[in-house]
Amino acid sequence: MENIRFLDTTLRDGEQTPGVALTKEDKLAIARKLDELGVHIIEAGSAITSEGERESIRAIAAEGLSADICSYCRIMQPDIDYALACDVDSIHLVAPVSDLHIRVKLKKDREAVMQMAIETTEYARDHGLIVELSGEDASRADLDFLKSIYQAGIEAGAERLCFCDTVGMLIPEKTEAIFKDLAASLKIPVSIHCHDDFGLGTANTVAALRAGAGEAHVTINGIGERAGNTSLEEVVMILEWLYKYDTGIKTTELFKTSRLVSRLTGIPVAPNKSLVGGNAFSHEAGIHVHGLLADTSTYEPIRPEILGRERKIVMGKHAGKSSVSLAIKEMGYDIQDSHLNEILKRVKELGDFGKHVTDADLQSIAETVLNIQCNSRVKLEDFTVVSGNRVTPTASVKLKVDGQEVVQAGIGDGPVDATIQCIKKAVAGVGDIQLEEYHVDAITGGTDALVEVLVKLSKDGRMITSRGTRTDIIMASVEAMLNGINRLIQAESSDRIKE
Ligand SMILES: CC(=O)SCCNC(=O)CCNC(=O)[C@H](O)C(C)(C)COP(=O)(O)OP(=O)(O)OC[C@H]1O[C@@H](n2cnc3c(N)ncnc32)[C@H](O)[C@@H]1OP(=O)(O)O
Ligand SMILES: CC(=O)C(=O)O
Fold first, then answer.
1. Range of the domain at 384
2. Rounded to two decimals, what is the model's pTM?
């Protein structure tokens, strides 16, 4: 493997994920981050799609990024004219190559497609564009026809070629054989563009790169049409760590990029997604935490910092003494073995009831067992929320903070958001408390279900999770927030006392 390049298509194929539509500002933010990561080519969109899409592509092309900015085009002159109007560096010029696509979709024959591919390649080259000529549905195409279209493309001026496994039908062995054949037959290396319909996108991409592909088409978090595309983070980390190949990608920015794309597209990352999933560096099992304390490589293939992440130890029914003792010590308490056994027993009891064990739960258990008093500095007096289809959700909250009454009102994206904004404003005097995560679960079915709200709050680098459980989602949110805020400020005071 040498000189591997990455074409990131988060902004084109990734945006084709059903339900995703990015604004110009969203696309610019993602493009800047991809450039910071060090991807070589950013496929910024399909210029033919709409005026808004063209404005976004134009804005990205005008950013002066190091990456080559590319637009998807069909083998049609209007698509190329629109790409030219966006001032892109290159086009991903896509010719359907399987007989299925040629006959059923285009209602043409191989000769016509060959002619269209040649003419549009020449047209784009004559207008100063770099052309990546791509075979759509190449994995179901006749390989000889595919090679002849690539050859004609090279003669017409294409500088890059691409093989699309459009509906994810490749397997690694077949990929390897095809790419060895292409490498032996063509003067320039072919790129690989895979879809994940059978979960083989990454495996096929890596197989192609090892067999001579020069460029991988990828997306952040593997988003894309249907089951998605090959994910950038997986290919990069596999090449770096399992094949010892230096990709040049800034891996410490991968996690932040993943979260940025998830937030802007509204597509959550599965907790168990490799490398960037919420649980990829979280540990609950006592045997694992015990091992990690001796050497993190016992239960982690790489250090989380390599991806710009942190390790998380989670409490629950699988916890052991090592993890409980670590968490309690981090909370600033000194404990003896007898206390530790009792705390662990209570943690497991909570777990057996099917409960998440939050930091606040653990702290409260520890305080009970160690017989420590916890005084809530922030107490709820009352709150009011107004919401409906014709009003802006508005909330007012009255709290007692260190015995002083504080009243705040505010608006939000919904009643819960409005209430949380008020609480944050009301406690601003005790410090800058950030809401990092908010999850809600209905514990029982029905509209009168018990609702569990889990929040993750941070203050000055310290993070805490807490829970509120009520039948009313707003009350559960208020409870989780106030519980967490009190625990955070109490943990800070314990630190001060220790110092
Ligand atoms: C595998 C992939 O990811 S391909 C990329 C998919 N991306 C997109 O579809 C981008 C967004 N698409 C759009 O905005 C619209 O579909 C447009 C503007 C491209 C076309 O819109 P319309 O003119 O209304 O056509 P429509 O969407 O109904 O059909 C697609 C047309 O493109 C043709 N076509 C499809 N792929 C190609 C191709 N690679 N080269 C040439 N023509 C193509 C189809 O045969 C069809 O032609 P027809 O209208 O003459 O039958
Ligand atoms: C072009 C493209 O995105 C595909 O064939 O999957």
1. 378-498
2. 0.85
